[in-house]
Amino acid sequence: MRGRLSAWLVKHGLVHRSLGFDYQGIETLQIKPEDWHSVAVILYVYGYNYLRSQCAYDVAPGGLLASVYHLTRIKYGVDQPEEVCIKVFAPRNNPKIPSVFWVWKSANFQERESYDMFGIFYDNHPRLKRILMPESWIGWPLRKDYVAPNFYEIQDAH
């Protein structure tokens, strides 16, 4: 099932995959990492002028990593603004996604947090460095295959 934005993207020849709608009826689209920056600029020009949130998650142990963007079309006098959810998947062995900091400045700390927790590299981010963990931390703590250093599980505890 295709939503309004998906139909508009198809009409203008922009490659994407519709993932349907979430429980609130918000359209969800998948964009390839190599297409993400140009699609982000187009969405901004189309009117999605507010990045409500950016987050990331680990799809499966050893699988893909996802960067998720919730965009909103803010207009004066509109009570129910249009929203869209964009998912960009990247392979865990080389998780690179173009940064949208230069499109939506609010992506700054959010992309840094996704980098810090999952190791997703956001190309052209002006200050991509750890924000929550110390710089000396090894690994990406929210990945499903992460093993905490110096963690010893108590066996056969009663």
Automatic annotation (TrEMBL):
GO terms for molecular function: NADH dehydrogenase (ubiquinone) activity; oxidoreductase activity, acting on NAD(P)H, quinone or similar compound as acceptor; quinone binding. The keyword NAD applies. Residues 30-149 form the NADH:ubiquinone oxidoreductase 30kDa subunit domain. GO terms for biological process: photosynthesis, light reaction. Its EC number is 7.1.1.-. Keywords: Chloroplast, Membrane, NAD, NADP, Plastid, Plastoquinone, Quinone, Thylakoid, Translocase, Transport. It catalyses: a plastoquinone + NADPH + (n+1) H(+)(in) = a plastoquinol + NADP(+) + n H(+)(out); a plastoquinone + NADH + (n+1) H(+)(in) = a plastoquinol + NAD(+) + n H(+)(out); a ubiquinone + NADH + 5 H(+)(in) = a ubiquinol + NAD(+) + 4 H(+)(out). It is found in: Mitochondrion inner membrane; Plastid, Chloroplast thylakoid membrane. It comes from the Eukaryota. Belongs to the complex I 30 kDa subunit family. NDH is composed of at least 16 different subunits, 5 of which are encoded in the nucleus. Core subunit of the mitochondrial membrane respiratory chain NADH dehydrogenase (Complex I) that is believed to belong to the minimal assembly required for catalysis. Complex I functions in the transfer of electrons from NADH to the respiratory chain. The immediate electron acceptor for the enzyme is believed to be ubiquinone. This is NAD(P)H-quinone oxidoreductase subunit J, chloroplastic. The gene is ndhJ.
